[in-house]
């Protein structure tokens, strides 16, 4: 089990998966035997890993329901592991909202779950209106108006700060 790491993610439009795959590559290069799985259809024993990362995107202010269920069902195991949580959301595009202490969604989420991850990463996602349904485009534009974000960008905008993702991986390795 030594140096065996599990990454579980829930991704709506693919950016959380992209971030987790990036982490997988960093951790693997550092000698970590790392496995990655989407939450959908997950069939893995958490006990067989030394370290666990759980990542979820946010849609309309909420983390993925299956991630929340996994955490609530396995919080005792998670609390006894070297574990981390990653939240990917567009609010984190603002520097003053990209930490566990400053991101309103993450603060609320952590206060409502029994798991206390040893490390929390908050990363900005991607804004790509071309991937959204009509209703999602409408609602996300409304949120962007409220948060002073772009409502009619000509192309996708990737807000993820990859250097912060690398720093997270370095800190996670030290757990």
Helix run count:
5
CATH architecture level-2 label: 3-Layer(aba) Sandwich
Going by CATH, the homologous superfamily would be: Flavodoxin domain
Radius of gyration: 16 Å
Tell the overall outline. Answer: globular
| Span between termini | 15 Å
Q: Strand portion, in percent?
A: 15-25%
Oligomer state equals single chain
Mean pLDDT: 94
| Percentage of residues assigned to helices | 25-40%
Q: Write down the domain tally.
A: 1
Biggest sheet features? 6 strands, mixed
Q: Provide the CATH topology.
A: Rossmann fold
The number of distinct β-strands equals 8
Order of helices and strands: EHEEEHEHEEHEH
The CATH class, by name, is Alpha Beta
Structural class: alpha/beta
Low-confidence stretches: none
Secondary structure topology:
Elements: E1 4-10, H1 15-29, E2 33-38, E3 51-59, E4 62-63, H2 65-79, E5 82-88, H3 104-112, E6 119-123, E7 126-127, H4 134-146, E8 157-158, H5 162-173
Parallel strand pairs: 1-2, 1-3, 3-5, 5-6
Antiparallel strand pairs: 3-4, 7-8
Helix pairs in contact: 1-5
């Amino acid at each position: 089990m030594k140096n065996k790491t599990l990454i579980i993610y829930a991704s709506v439009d693919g950016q959380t998966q992209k971030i987790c795959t990036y982490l997988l590559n960093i951790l693997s290069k550092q000698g970590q035997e790392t496995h990655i799985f989407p939450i959908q259809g997950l069939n893995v024993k958490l006990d067989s890993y030394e370290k666990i990362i759980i990542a979820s995107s946010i849609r309309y202010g909420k983390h993925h329901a299956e991630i929340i269920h996994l955490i609530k069902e396995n919080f005792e195991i998670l609390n006894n592991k070297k574990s981390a949580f990653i939240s990917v959301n567009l609010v984190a595009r603002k520097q003053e909202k990209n930490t566990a202490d400053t991101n309103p969604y993450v603060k609320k989420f952590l206060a409502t779950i029994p798991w206390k991850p040893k490390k929390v990463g908050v990363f900005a996602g991607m804004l790509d209106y071309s991937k959204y349904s009509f209703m999602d485009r409408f609602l996300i534009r409304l949120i962007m108006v409220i948060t002073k974000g772009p409502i009619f960008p000509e192309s996708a905008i990737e807000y993820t700060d990859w250097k912060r993702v690398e720093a997270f991986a370095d800190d996670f390795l030290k757990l």
